[in-house]
Write the structure tokens for this entry.
Amino acid sequence: MLDDPRPTFSFEFFPPRTDAGEQALWQAVRELESLRPGFVSVTYGAGGSTRDRTVRVTRRIAEETTLTPMAHLTCVGSSRAELASVLGQYADAGIHTVLALRGDPPGGPGTPFEAHPEGLAYASHLVSLIRSLGQFDVGVAAFPEGHPEARDLDHDAEVLVAKADAGAQFAITQFFFDADDYFALVDRVRGRGCDLPIVPGIMPVTNVSQIERFAALSGAAFPAALAERLHAVADDPAAVRAIGVEVATQLSSRLLAGGAPGLHFYTLNRSTATREVFAALA
């Protein structure tokens, strides 16, 4: 999927919960389709709660658009047999790229993760299962600031290398705001003899409280200077988006200049900010 020497741009959506959300999702899909991304992905909800909707939306993207969908799959709450069944549904729809994730504990961040009695405990095990069941390209998650459960950054890099050793072909990072964190992660992984392509994840800020909540849940650091700028205009959505686009564009430019193989945009099912960043980069 990342064998093109040019940077690959991709977009991520989440399964809608309401009719209005469904309409917003498909409007964003259609508007971003014209940018011809390398692929698009559809997330699982917390604790794997939206698995069926994720499968349905991903299949529909494959069947009704010109986009190449990447499916998400998590270990949470699923047996090996259930995971194999979902993979079969994806394959039947012509979807052959999967992002393999352990997933967040159903009880939320900070609670212990308990694998399904007949399931898998680690993303590396899920990678191995996927690779054993067909001709799938497999991606995994990476964490520039370290996974919240990692002992330290070196341990976090070792976990990512283990995913590559299991058969992962690329990684996509959690969103972040400091390019140095990304480059340091790449250096740690390369220092362990692993050349896994690592695609930075970018989330243009469009809502102050939302991004602060996401940062708290993911463990990502939300820069104090950026928070101050955003809170100063929090009552002006257009001004918030303008700052978010400016910051995301600057970050994206530095990442590409430093050799990142592409950019993965977390769209939150809205296209405006992502299209503005894309246009600024172009």
About this structure: The chain has a mean pLDDT of 89. The beta strands are 8-13, 39-42, 69-74, 97-101, 137-142, 170-175, 198-202, 262-266. DSSP finds ten helices and eight strands in the chain.
